[in-house]
């Protein structure tokens, strides 16, 4: 007896572009006159229950029977980028189950539900320029939520697929269907600025998902598409925490997106400062853009956002803070900090990029527009300021490392800041340029090590006596002090004023008669610790 096997269904129901799997399965069921759950049971293992979570898994089996391409079940690129941001920055985010909807879209001749309506930050219908509606106005539920009631009935796309919770019913019987016409729901028009902000966020997320390392420009800075998109999400999270996105109203989230877009598209640091003050974002002591070093950082910082905030705060920062954050550079940034793990915590420690690069008294030919060559305290203050560039180490610790008195660190602001704002800006810019030159060509001398060697005065005096003996000159007590001070100054790069050797009455003893200074310093340098090929003195290129 001949037989046959029907392995395909006769009526093809192709999905629309960007259609939600639940919407497509509902249309397939309506076309065949059976509930979506029956369609799924006939196409796949009957033990698999059709819900919003399993609709994407069951759709390919149904599409195979209908000879059509199944709608995509995976999250959109934008939604995956939001998840990547939450994992990167340690933000807790609750998934928003179900779908929002546009009543005007559901009023089309062939209505269907869009996949993008399930995204947490897709809140606007660009076609009709209205906010998406979060819940059914009658039953208060999000359509296609975690419940499976939508799969148990045949209904048009514009009808609420949920059951009501407020109906009076007989015990152990099913609740009534909602049956609300979602096309009749009210709509809320969004402004042009809010529509542009929503489009701005979507484009940023799409670019970050498709090309994470793609170049993106902000002012004169170049960053990556990922960092730019994550900066937008950080600004939104600062206003509406991500763990509230699932329950926050669309109007609240759209307002937050608008503010975030205003910050990222501001024309100048002054505009960023005005927006931050008006809306209470970019808190410098908050959890999103903290500019001060913290002992325990539980969340990474978005470097682009912190630079944006530092640029806007630059006029209000002290001289030490401007140097530490490098506000005079092309891109302000917090000081580089090393990290070590202590369980779930990241313990950070300050770093000092210029350690060993700078002598205790700045080179005589540098920054002469700001201090005179004879101003020993001014040159030492400039060395402290240059060492502070990009460093979170306290000035007192820097002064100790350079062999300078601690009071100079306490009075550096008075020594260098007694000038107009334009002069101070010019000073920080000159210090930044000098620091960049040192970064490009680091000194062949470790001044920090030399200062440490110079603290052993007995070693310096022994080297001075030995160098003088090469010229057959015996030094008395006063001449030995004078020669030792000169050798100490040449070796450490400091100034005689900061030499710890005691000088009676504060007067410099006379130079030993007949002692050639240049030859003495060369011979004395050879007696002190140094690397092979290391010069006694050096000047920045």
UniProtKB/TrEMBL annotation:
Region (Disordered) residue spans: 330-351
Domain of life: Bacteria
Residue span, TniQ domain: 10-132
Composition bias type Basic and acidic residues, residue spans: 336-348
Protein name: TniQ family protein
Originating species: Cellulomonas fengjieae
Pfam families, A to Z: TniQ (PF06527)
């Amino acid at each position: 007896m001949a037989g046959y096997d029907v392995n395909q269904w006769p009526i093809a129901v192709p999905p629309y572009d960007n259609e939600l799997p639940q919407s497509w399965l509902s249309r397939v069921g309506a076309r065949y006159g059976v509930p979506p759950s029956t369609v799924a049971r006939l196409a796949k293992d009957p033990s698999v229950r059709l819900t919003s979570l399993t609709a994407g898994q069951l759709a390919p089996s149904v599409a195979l029977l209908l000879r059509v391409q199944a709608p995509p079940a995976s999250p959109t690129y934008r939604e995956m980028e939001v998840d990547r941001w939450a994992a990167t920055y340690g933000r807790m985010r609750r998934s928003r189950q179900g779908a929002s909807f546009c009543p005007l879209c559901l009023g089309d001749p062939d209505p269907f539900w869009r996949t993008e309506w399930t995204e947490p930050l897709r809140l606007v219908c660009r076609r009709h320029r209205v906010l998406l509606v979060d819940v059914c106005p009658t039953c208060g539920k999000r359509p296609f939520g975690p419940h499976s009631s939508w799969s148990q009935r045949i209904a048009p796309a514009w009808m609420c697929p949920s059951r009501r919770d407020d109906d009076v019913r007989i015990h152990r019987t099913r609740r009534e269907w909602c049956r609300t016409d979602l096309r009749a729901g009210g709509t809320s028009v969004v402004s042009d600025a809010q529509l542009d902000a929503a489009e701005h966020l979507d484009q940023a997320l799409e670019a970050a998902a498709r090309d994470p390392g793609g170049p993106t420009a902000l002012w004169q800075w170049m960053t990556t598409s990922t960092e730019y998109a994550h900066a937008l999400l950080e600004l939104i999270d600062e206003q509406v925490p991500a763990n509230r996105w699932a329950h926050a109203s669309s109007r609240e989230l759209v307002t937050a997106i608008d503010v975030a877009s205003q910050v990222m598209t501001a024309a100048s640091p002054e505009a960023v400062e005005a927006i931050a003050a008006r809306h209470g974002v970019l808190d410098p002591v908050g959890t999103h853009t903290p500019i001060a070093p913290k002992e325990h950082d539980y969340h990474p910082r978005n470097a682009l956002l912190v630079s944006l905030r530092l640029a806007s705060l630059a006029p209000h920062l002290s001289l030490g803070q401007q140097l530490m954050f490098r506000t005079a550079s092309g891109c302000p940034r917090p000081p580089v900090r090393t990290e070590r793990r202590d369980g779930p915590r990241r313990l950070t420690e300050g770093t000092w990029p210029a350690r060993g690069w700078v002598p205790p008294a700045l080179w005589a030919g540098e920054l002469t527009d700001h201090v005179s060559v004879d101003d020993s305290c001014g040159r030492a203050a400039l060395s402290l300021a240059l060492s502070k560039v990009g460093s979170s180490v306290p000035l007192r610790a820097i002064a100790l490392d350079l062999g300078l008195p601690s009071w100079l660190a306490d009075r550096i602001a008075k020594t260098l800041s007694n000038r107009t704002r334009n002069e101070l800006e010019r000073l920080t810019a000159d210090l930044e340029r000098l620091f960049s030159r040192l970064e490009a060509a680091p000194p062949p001398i470790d001044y920090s090590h030399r200062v440490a060697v110079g603290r052993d005065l007995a070693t310096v005096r022994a080297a001075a006596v030995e160098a003088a003996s090469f010229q057959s000159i015996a030094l008395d007590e006063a001449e030995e002090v004078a020669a030792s001070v000169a050798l100490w100054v040449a070796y450490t790069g400091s100034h005689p004023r900061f030499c710890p050797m005691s000088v009676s009455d504060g007067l410099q003893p006379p130079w030993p008669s007949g002692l050639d200074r240049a030859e003495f310093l060369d011979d004395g340098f050879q007696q002190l610790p140094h690397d092979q090929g290391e010069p006694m003195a050096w000047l920045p290129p």
